[in-house]
């Protein structure tokens, strides 16, 4: 009798385990195997949860379109047209000059954002159409000029290469991350909480990967400028704190000792508060940043006509 190879043996064991699990699932009710831990009297989604969760669709649309176009040269209108609900396509977005490593990362992020939009729309209602978004190189150049306090020459172009693109991405998952942390204390439904936790987990992972990518290149000078990657992150974070107007909730790759973990490190691979907990922002703070106006009542920046949803639209009316 022939002796099975190691890989064949592992494959056989896997089949046996899968088969036994299947038999077990047949013999026992699912709720005994996988109890939810949820009271039968609990409410899945409170009415008050809906606007808060739907607000985050603005950032998910922003990330999905940016990542899809950068890696594939097309966006949601091709990949998942049912999600845009007739909303206008983004301005100025195009395919980026990414190396294979960066492209693989961003391509996966892109598909994750599509899933996030689908999950939000399926669990808390259809939401709203895709808002008009400005993802042009011209807009990013203006943003980076404001971060440094003078005009960069040549103008910063996020589509130029992988490093520029990752620097431009530095802002996106983190905005969603702090928004979800801020929303958490206001929602009540168990289904809504699970949705938020799932979204927060992945957005946090995306932010960590982008920050690690940049941290590995922290001392590299960004061509053709005289500033390092670390300096770029610090200037962008300072700008976002200034626009949000609610203290230091955003930090670059290096910080003073008093802002480092337990006041013992200047490295800042993950941005967090004095207890190393994730920071949080309100919808108003986020809008001040993404509008690039420092005012949640005045639209601009990434959303020339304003973000969508009840929260954002009501703030524009005030």
Automatic annotation (TrEMBL):
Protein name: Desiccation-related protein PCC13-62-like
Domain of life (superkingdom): Eukaryota
Gene symbol of the encoding locus: LOC104227661
Organism lineage: Eukaryota, Viridiplantae, Streptophyta, Embryophyta, Tracheophyta
N-terminal signal peptide: 1-25
Keywords: Signal
Organism: Nicotiana sylvestris (Wood tobacco)
PANTHER family reported in the protein's UniProt record: DESICCATION-LIKE PROTEIN, DESICCATION-RELATED PROTEIN PCC13-62-LIKE
Pfam families reported for this sequence: Ferritin_2
């Amino acid at each position: 009798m022939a002796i099975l190879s190691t890989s064949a043996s592992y494959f056989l064991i896997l089949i046996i385990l899968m088969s036994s699990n299947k038999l077990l699932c047949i013999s026992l009710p699912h709720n005994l195997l996988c109890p939810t831990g949820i009271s039968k009297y609990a409410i899945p989604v409170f009415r008050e949860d809906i606007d808060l969760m739907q607000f985050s669709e603005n950032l998910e649309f922003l990330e999905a379109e940016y990542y899809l176009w950068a890696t594939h040269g097309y966006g949601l209108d091709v990949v998942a047209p049912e999600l845009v609900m007739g909303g206008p396509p983004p301005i100025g977005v195009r395919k980026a000059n990414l190396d294979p490593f960066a492209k693989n990362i961003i391509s996966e992020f892109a598909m994750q954002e599509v899933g996030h939009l689908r999950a939000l729309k399926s669990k808390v209602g259809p939401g709203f159409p895709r808002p008009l978004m400005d993802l042009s190189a011209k807009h990013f150049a203006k943003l980076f000029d404001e971060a440094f306090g003078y005009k960069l020459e040549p103008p910063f172009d996020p589509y130029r290469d992988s490093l520029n693109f990752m620097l431009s991405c530095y802002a996106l998952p983190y905005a969603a991350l702090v928004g979800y942390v801020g929303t958490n204390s206001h929602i009540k439904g168990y289904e809504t909480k699970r949705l938020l936790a799932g979204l927060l987990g992945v957005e946090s992972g995306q932010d960590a990967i982008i920050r690690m990518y940049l941290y590995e290149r922290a001392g590299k000078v960004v061509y053709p400028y005289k500033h390092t990657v670390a300096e770029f992150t610090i200037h962008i974070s300072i700008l976002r704190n200034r626009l949000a107007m609610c203290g230091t909730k955003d930090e670059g790759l290096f910080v003073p000792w008093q802002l480092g973990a337990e006041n013992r490190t200047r490295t800042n691979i993950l941005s967090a508060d004095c207890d190393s907990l994730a920071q949080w922002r309100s919808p108003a703070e986020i809008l001040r940043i993404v509008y690039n106006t420092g005012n949640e009542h005045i639209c601009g920046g990434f959303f020339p006509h304003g973000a969508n949803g009840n929260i954002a639209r009501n703030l524009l009316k005030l």
